[in-house]
Design a protein that fits this description.
Helix content: 25-40%
Radius of gyration: 24 Å
CATH class of the largest domain: Alpha Beta
Shape: globular
Number of strands: 22
Distance between the termini: 35 Å
CATH superfamily of the largest domain: Zn peptidases
Number of domains: 2
Length: about 550
């Protein structure tokens, strides 16, 4: 601990020494009126929820490109435009899709889509005509650094893997990062590992023990939207989420029940074993192919040596579009998620473009589509980056902006993995704020894994998502927590996340200015952010640098 504190202080000193302080703190550059204008348009019913590949999504993209043109940003899209075109494939499962469960006596039970299960990252070609055996594989994790392997005693080749959501419980920071979720808890990580082991598909059971706010009806409504994939990444492997209230069906005649599985989770004694059931699946889908766009622009750095390195400031402009009606409203406007974040990015781009001298490093402003469909826009950006990834030194992602009240502290989601933590401390100090950790009540939400910053981390690029802390100027911490929970339960991913929600624009300006000053602190430092030695993303970065990719 003493060594870590010493290194942190040394890095803080080096980062501070490398600053040109005339750049570091910029006030009164952010306009509440302009942010409100952006939010009012992007969150309006006219844009129909900005669904990926929809009319509203295209209107939003056009609006954003015009704003970039107004700021005279350098185009980084296709054909010297701001549009990075992405070929995508959409599919929607029909009720006529058939998932059949077989017991050990080959009795058949038709499982109902929406009620019993929903499809995840589905592909039109998913087809299992011959019943395949199910096998329970614990959490579906292999983590050598923790000496943990759910697959050690089982052979899953040619089978369908059933796993429990999440990962082993731990209070030890050195074991699965204690109470904080790791990349192993991510559904995509479980799926990729299962397929690499030879499995034909995966069934994930939500962990009711770890998610007190679990709501299958909400999940079912969210899944009613079109599934979208990158055109070059359509999968043919079955992947589904099973309703935990009916998960006992999968364990018919097996030595352990779903209740036993939950008890194993609590007792830290998870085991893997074959089930006595099989499944077959025949999907029936509505399909379409279309083009959607990321919007990309750049401010070239002013330093002759540093301007060939890049910082990406990103936000996703898409939302869910038109979907399941709630109280007669079917437009999922996505004002907080993420029209407000996009508006903040636009104002930051406008403010920095108006500076008398550009920052030393180049800054890329990236507005991504398809985030709600599985981080598709950021994934495409990484696969087709307009600049070398090894020269991209950091990503700052914006997914939501403070709106309750002015705040006294900030939280850096993912900062613990890299020296972005040091830059965050530096910027907070300059802005007379504290840096705090994620409150324990919210740690199960996997914030770092759930938005576009994780795409950059997986490409080896240090990334961060900055939220306000829970100590406010005019409301209590308890009231702040209640408002976060209320938004999550009543408004998030519903048509009620619209322009009727109250917004404290003093908080919006404070948050936006902080992100801008953090960005400028990075852009004007001669010291690049680096992953800590303990980071799971370090080796990816080293490989990218070695291969100059």
């Amino acid at each position: 601990m003493v060594i870590k504190i010493f290194l942190f202080c040394l890095l803080f000193y080096i980062v501070t020494l490398g600053q040109d302080n005339s750049f570091n703190l910029i006030q009164n550059k952010i306009s509440a009126e302009k942010i409100q204008k952006h939010i009012s348009y992007l969150g309006s019913d006219e844009l129909e929820g900005r669904g990926t590949g929809s009319r509203g999504g295209e209107l939003a993209a056009n609006y954003l490109a015009k704003e970039f043109l107004n700021y005279e940003l350098i185009p980084l899209g296709n054909n010297n435009t701001y549009y990075q075109y992405i070929q995508m494939h959409g599919s929607t499962p029909k009720e006529s899709s058939k998932l059949i469960l077989y017991d050990k006596n080959d009795n058949q039970f038709l499982l109902n889509i929406s009620t019993d299960y929903i499809l995840l990252n589905l592909g039109d070609q998913t087809y299992i005509p011959t019943p395949l055996p199910l096998i329970f594989a614990g959490y579906g994790i292999t983590a050598p650094e923790y000496d943990y392997n759910d697959y050690q005693s089982i052979d899953v080749e040619g089978k369908i893997v059933v796993v429990l959501e999440g990962e082993p419980l731990s209070d030890n920071k050195k074991y699965f990062d204690g109470v904080n979720p790791t990349i192993y808890s991510f559904a995509d990580a479980k799926k990729r590992l299962a397929i690499s082991k030879g499995a034909r598909g995966i069934i994930i059971i939500p962990n009711l023990d770890d998610n007190p706010y679990f709501d299958w009806e909400w999940i079912n409504q969210s899944s009613a939207f079109e599934n979208v994939q990158l055109a070059y990444a359509v999968t043919s492997n079955l992947s589904l989420l099973f309703n935990p209230l009916y998960a006992e069906k999968l364990f018919i005649d097996s030595p352990f029940s779903i209740d036993d599985i939950y008890q194993m989770h609590r007792n830290h004694r998870m085991i893997s074993f074959p089930l006595q059931t099989k499944i077959s699946f025949k999907g029936d889908f509505e399909r379409r192919d279309f083009i959607a766009s990321n919007i990309l622009g750049m401010i070239k750095g002013s330093d002759e040596e540093l301007n060939d390195t890049y910082i990406v400031l990103s936000a996703h402009y898409d939302h869910l579009g038109i979907g399941f009606p709630v109280e007669g409203d079917s437009i999922y406007n996505g004002v907080f998620d993420n029209a407000a974040g996009v508006a903040a990015l636009l104002e930051i781009a406008s403010a920095i473009s108006s500076l008398e001298e550009n920052p030393k490093r180049s800054i890329i402003f990236a507005l991504f589509t398809g985030e709600e469909k599985g981080l598709l826009g950021s994934r495409y950006y990484i696969d087709h980056s307009p600049v070398p990834l090894y020269k991209t030194v950091a990503n700052i992602n914006i997914d939501g902006i403070a709106s309750f009240d002015r705040f006294k502290s900030v939280v850096g989601i993912g900062s613990e993995f890299s020296t972005l933590e040091v830059f965050l401390e530096e910027t907070a100090f300059q802005n007379e704020l504290n840096v705090t950790e994620i409150p324990s009540i919210f740690r199960q939400t996997d914030a770092y894994l759930s938005s576009d910053q994780i795409t950059f981390a997986r490409a080896g690029i240090p990334s961060i998502l900055i939220f306000e802390g829970l100590d406010y100027e005019n409301i209590s911490t308890e009231e702040g927590i209640e408002r976060f929970i209320e938004y999550s339960k009543k408004y998030y991913h519903t048509p009620k996340d619209d322009l009727t929600l109250p917004i404290n624009y003093e908080a919006v300006i404070q948050h936006t200015e902080f992100i801008m000053n953090f960005l400028l602190t990075l852009a004007n430092s001669e010291v690049e952010p680096e992953w800590y030695q303990s980071s799971p993303y370090l080796n990816i970065r080293l490989r990218s640098i070695a291969e100059r990719k």
